[in-house]
């Protein structure tokens, strides 16, 4: 389903040579076996040399609409009882209906309908109590029936909205809230998968994915750049994961994005659009859209024009390349699905008396089961724990990090803001460095809470606590208290010993002492560090600073 966006689209790169305009078209496809590119050049027309239009590139504005295919989290497919498992052996999850054998009929999966209704409610959509299924005809080798069952005429939900947050210059303390309209949400089947083997000149078909339930979320062209689109997709991903209606693993194809991109000058009609297909990463989505906006701007600035086409994004080169043109209107020959009656959903007022609850989808009952959504979680974290709004974004956006924080806060007496520092700066930093999820952290919430309690009680200094943290990360199986005892990292309380170490450091660094007495108090930090090094971080930095000030000033 195409987003109702900016006009038409493009397919060929246009360049000027000896007073003539030429089309250079690259046909390409990527697969697990190979990547082939075939270039053809065709004379389009002859013209006299023309002067380039002198226009300001800054006047061009990008227009972006999205079509997002979210795989419904269900044990069975949309119209059959076949299982849904990623990376299952090829063609091991295919029913007779999935293979489109004669005489087989679709049986609608109730779970998929409930997931679509719940998602629509979370996205502020109007639920159509009566929706229809249609056949969309097109030929792919991995589409056995020759058509896809979708909802073209009357989808399950329309007219929604998604509110998302955008960073200004990548700073969380400068957040702008934006809203994108949702045109519709529809149920439809996924297709199978084609694997092209050029070595043997054959195409292999895996129908495991054929018939898997999808929710297509069609967003209006309310965005203007890749950064906005990526932020909207990430927020939608968080909502779907919170609802449990889609696991949202983009690497496994559970969330795939098509971007409709065009450019125009303010006050002018929307430009011809291109569609960039099947992007499976928010970061790649931003890059693809920004590249396409710049490409179209360059073409128009050089006197060319944009073609209505479908393009693919090559993440290695950071470029989009043509797949097929869309200049000719493709006839999908939509027709009502004759084997499926209208889909009827109810609310408390319209549900039939004595209806079997297992045979009825009740909108109001699903609304009551809606979980806490990401934007509500962020507000609650700020109000309940007094943390900064930017920290709430990090906690909610990282899968499992909010639960980790709450568990630590429940078991420690430390201030929430101190906990935030250890979790976001130290723990999350190491997790990112080692490409680990929060669930894979070698430091459990209980271990982190124990460490913070030792620090809060004055048992260890802040620098010693960092050493304990590193030992916990190694996952040796020892608790924070055991590590402190084993490495003798307990806070040194004997003031006479501290004074003796401070005197030794001062005597061996007279040049620094003269600088301090000359007014450069920043040098004092160097002496504090040297004392801590001598004591392996066991001293209280505040007490060390006090002693050094007494002896140097």
Tell me briefly what this model is.
The protein is of the alpha+beta class and 553 residues long. The protein is 33% helix and 24% strand.
What do you see in this structure?
The chain is α+β, with helices and mostly antiparallel strands. It is built from 15 helices and 19 strands. The chain has helices spanning 110-122, 226-243, 282-301, 363-368, 374-385, 389-397, 401-411, 416-433, 445-456, 462-473, 480-486, 495-507, 510-517, 524-534, 541-552; strands at 13-17, 20-30, 35-46, 61-71, 126-127, 130-131, 134-137, 147-150, 157-168, 171-189, 193-197, 202-206, 213-219, 255-264, 274-279, 309-314, 319-325, 335-336, 343-344. The protein has a nine-stranded mixed β-sheet with strand order 5-9-10-13-4-14-15-16-17. Strand 11 (193-197) and strand 12 form a beta hairpin. Helix 2 runs antiparallel to helix 3 (282-301). It is elongated, with a radius of gyration of 30 Å.
Outline the secondary-structure elements.
Layout: E1 13-17, E2 20-30, E3 35-46, E4 61-71, H1 110-122, E5 126-127, E6 130-131, E7 134-137, E8 147-150, E9 157-168, E10 171-189, E11 193-197, E12 202-206, E13 213-219, H2 226-243, E14 255-264, E15 274-279, H3 282-301, E16 309-314, E17 319-325, E18 335-336, E19 343-344, H4 363-368, H5 374-385, H6 389-397, H7 401-411, H8 416-433, H9 445-456, H10 462-473, H11 480-486, H12 495-507, H13 510-517, H14 524-534, H15 541-552
Parallel strand pairs: 15-16
Antiparallel strand pairs: 1-2, 2-3, 4-13, 4-14, 5-9, 6-19, 7-8, 7-18, 9-10, 10-13, 11-12, 14-15, 16-17
Helix pairs in contact: 2-3, 5-6, 6-7, 7-8, 7-9, 9-10, 12-14, 12-15, 14-15
């Amino acid at each position: 389903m195409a987003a109702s966006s900016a006009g038409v689209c493009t397919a060929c790169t246009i360049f000027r040579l000896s007073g003539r305009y030429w089309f250079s078209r690259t046909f390409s496809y990527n697969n697990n076996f190979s990547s082939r590119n075939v270039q053809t050049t065709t004379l389009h027309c002859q013209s006299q040399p023309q002067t380039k239009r002198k226009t300001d590139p800054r006047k061009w504005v990008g227009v972006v609409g999205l079509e997002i295919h979210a795989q419904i989290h269900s044990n069975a497919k949309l119209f059959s009882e076949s299982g849904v498992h990623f990376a299952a052996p090829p063609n091991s999850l295919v029913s007779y209906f999935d293979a489109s054998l004669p005489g087989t009929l679709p049986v609608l999966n109730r779970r998929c309908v409930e997931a679509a209704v719940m998602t629509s409610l979370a996205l502020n959509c109007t639920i159509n109590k009566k929706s229809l299924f249609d056949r969309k005809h097109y030929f792919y080798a991995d589409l056995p029936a020759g058509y896809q069952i979708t909802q073209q005429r009357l989808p399950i939900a329309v007219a929604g909205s998604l509110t998302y947050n955008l960073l200004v210059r990548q700073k969380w303390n400068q957040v702008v809230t934006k809203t994108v309209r949702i045109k519709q949400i529809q149920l439809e089947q996924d297709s199978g998968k084609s694997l092209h083997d050029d070595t043997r000149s054959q195409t292999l078909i895996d129908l495991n994915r054929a018939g898997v339930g999808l929710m297509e979320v069609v967003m209006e062209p309310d965005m203007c750049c890749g950064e906005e689109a990526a932020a909207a997709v990430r927020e939608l991903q968080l909502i779907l994961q919170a609802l449990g209606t889609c696991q949202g693993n983009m690497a496994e194809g559970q969330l795939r994005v098509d971007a409709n991109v065009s450019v125009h000058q303010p006050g002018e009609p929307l430009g011809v659009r291109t569609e960039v297909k099947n992007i499976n990463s928010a970061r790649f989505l931003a890059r693809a859209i920004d590249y396409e906006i710049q490409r179209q701007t360059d073409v128009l600035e050089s006197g060319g024009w944009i073609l209505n086409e479908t393009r693919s994004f090559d993440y290695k080169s950071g470029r989009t390349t043509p797949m097929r043109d869309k200049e000719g209107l493709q006839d999908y020959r939509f027709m009502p699905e004759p084997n499926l009656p209208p889909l009827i959903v109810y609310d408390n007022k319209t549900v039939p008396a004595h209806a079997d609850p297992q045979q009825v989808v009740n909108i109001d009952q699903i609304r009551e089961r809606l979980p806490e959504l990401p934007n509500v979680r962020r507000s609650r974290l700020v109000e309940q724990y007094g943390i900064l709004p930017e920290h709430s974004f990090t906690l909610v956006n990282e899968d499992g990090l909010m639960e980790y924080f709450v568990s630590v806060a429940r078991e420690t007496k430390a201030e929430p803001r101190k906990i935030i520092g250890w979790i976001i700066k130290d723990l999350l930093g190491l997790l990112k460095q080692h490409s680990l999820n929060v669930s894979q952290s070698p430091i459990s919430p209980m271990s982190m809470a124990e460490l913070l309690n030792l620090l809060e009680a004055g048992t260890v200094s802040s620098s010693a606590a960092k050493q304990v943290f590193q030992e916990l990360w190694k996952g040796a199986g020892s608790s924070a208290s055991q590590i402190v005892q084993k490495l003798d990292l307990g806070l040194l309380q004997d003031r006479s010993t501290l004074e003796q170490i401070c005197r030794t450091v001062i005597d061996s660094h007279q040049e620094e002492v003269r600088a301090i007495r000359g007014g450069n108090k920043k040098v004092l930090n160097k002496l504090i560090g040297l004392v801590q090094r001598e004591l392996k971080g066991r001293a209280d930095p505040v007490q060390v600073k006090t002693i050094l000030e007494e002896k140097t000033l």
